[in-house]
Design a protein that fits this description.
Length: 194
């Protein structure tokens, strides 16, 4: 594997923290201040064959070290996105007898019954909170399904961030100002030379 420059190594080390190439480039090249330049250079850096190979190698090393692969992470996020509260709780409303009214007729009311399944029977990894407050109120919360769906959507490329770039870009065009006829003559001359 080809050797990286010290700055390229800093870039890769920083990039692997959060996969943010712009931030990594700013750390590796702190003297570069112009945002447009940083974005373009960071993108170019990711396309550099030596840098790309080193990133791939480091990611594979991390997979071996942590024994966690990208597919494992996606599987866990999908588990959160597809989970259902009924996997943990059952709930129903039923009529209950509360007594008799002034005319001697039975009075019924409704009460909600919530039963949590036994922890030995369920996979608890998607539960973010279970608590009973001082007032005796039971609280049960799963990890956020919306966040999991957004993460999956981003992974699948469903959401594209729109980036607006403004500014003036001056391109040195040596043919600027030539007429169509002059351009055709130049093209013909270059064909004759080739």
């Amino acid at each position: 594997m080809a050797k990286l420059t010290p700055k390229q190594k800093i870039f890769v080390d920083e990039y692997l923290v959060d996969l943010n190439a712009t931030r990594a480039y700013k750390v590796a090249y702190p003297s570069c201040k112009k945002e447009e330049t940083i974005n373009a250079a960071a993108s170019r850096m990711l396309r550099n064959v030596k840098v790309k190979d080193y990133i791939d190698k480091r990611m594979k090393d991390r997979e071996k070290r942590t024994e966690i692969k990208q597919d494992d992470v996606i599987r866990e996020i999908a588990s959160i996105a597809n989970d259902d509260i009924k996997n943990y709780l059952s709930f129903k409303t039923e009529k209950v007898f509360v007594g008799y009214d002034v005319n001697g007729l039975p009075v019924q009311d409704y009460r909600t019954i919530v039963n949590m399944k036994d922890s030995d029977e369920i996979d608890t990894k998607n539960i973010s909170e279970i608590s009973i407050g001082k007032d005796g109120q039971f609280k049960f919360k799963l990890y956020c399904r919306d966040n999991a769906l957004i993460q999956l959507g981003k992974h699948l490329g469903m959401f594209k961030d729109k980036v607006e770039v403004t500014g003036n870009m001056k391109v040195n065009n040596p043919y600027e100002g030539l007429t169509t006829e002059q351009l055709l003559r130049l093209a013909q001359l270059s064909d004759d030379d080739g």
